[in-house]
Amino acid sequence: MAKVLFSHSYFYRLDAKQWKQAEPFPPLMTITAAAHLRQNGFDVALFDVALKASEEGLDKLLEEHKPDYFVIFDDGFNWLTKMCLSTMREAAFRMQRIAKSRGIKVITCSSDSTDHVKKYLDQEADVVIRGEGERTLLELINAFEEESDISGVKGISFKKDDEIVATPKRPALVNLDELPQPAWDLIEVDKYKTIWKNNGKPPYLNIATTRGCPYKCNWCAKPIYGTRYNSRSPQRVVDEIEYHAIHNQVNHFWMCDDIFGLKPGWVQQFRDELQNRQLKVRFKIQSRADLLLKEDNIQALVDSGLDEVWIGAESGSQKILDAMDKGTSVAQIHESTNLLKKHGVKVGFFIQYGYLGETLQDINLTIKMIKELLPDLLGISVSYPLPGTKFYDLVKSDLQQKANWVDSDDLDMMFKNTYQPAFYKVLHKYTHNIYKIEKGFRAARQFLVRPHQQTRVKIREIIRAGYHIPLAIIKTIQLRWLA
User: Fold this and answer.
1) Whole-angstrom Cα distance, residue 4 to residue 142?
2) Whole-model pTM?
3) Which of 22, 91, 118, 276 is the most buried (most CB within 10 A)?
């Protein structure tokens, strides 16, 4: 029986912003691939680096486990790995070299390696799996075990006579229920739970219900699952939830799909399955403003335990949304946000500054939307060119040597835009200042009307607004100068 040691290359400790946030998630795609190989007779183990400060300990584990294959299988459900951060890439390279130095066959599957095959092969990977990897990995290792020609395996790249060979793309898996439940027994779940609890938060675990996204936002890369949208059955998803309730005592979940509940009727079946098993959960999702307004989706989600929704709002300017090929309207953002809040659901906005053609007028429309709708949570970024997208093709001639962020707090504008990079750095902070000031003003008005009903959180928001007012004034001056 061949031995396979799995790992991945997202180290939370190497991303200061995410480590401080203290909301780590296990590498879901990695343990799904491990479960698939184990189901097919392989001896699998995991070197989980998510909570580690470095790859220290890998060499010792390789010595103890003596695997025939070392597989870096990054979590394509984690948006942080899709960003292809250079810190994590270098960590992957180091691990590849460590394994290769022991004569172990090295296989890598990730968004970054799919986009940069040569870089990974030059750093001691024997094979790069492009795109969705579970079936490809199984077929590849079987080919190695049988000492047959791997060029017949779809979806891989490797070197032959110093030339890179790329086999045809593998079609996406349609029936996701063919895959086993992720190998959660390989994860030290209590370590993850402790970090959440120490930060005063209920521990969350991640679950994927779908793969792919059919929408055509022209800046969004889909190197792993593409634009095809496939779903697990509600029954299989609830099986996994029930497993966590029993074995890990967790009932809070991050449904880490790009788009949750797109398939007609799925959300309603999911609700019914939870209720039939008398499972009470709280969960958060990513969705679209237009999708949330279809059928009775919001009510069904609330009945299922929906606690938080992150909407890809991106901009308050319809001109920019249309330029992005977003397919949503500012009016839909308003309607869905108000409806979610009416149902007591927390709303988060993803905001993206710096798309091509964005002007001060567009930026002001975005800030106006944030102030009017006042989402419960706010995530701000700048346009980030990823290979394989229309947006990347539009700006690639302007890209300098730096083509990836170092970590998730980098936020460097890597192409020529309407304003200089420093402008967007200040704009990012200014928007947060304005957002927190508005929250403080709203809390203050509520305090004047109902002083005895205010929570400590609301009182802190009032105090915090006083701190952000002078900062906003300073940044207003900076923005005028930089513009």
Assistant:
1) 12
2) 0.94
3) 91
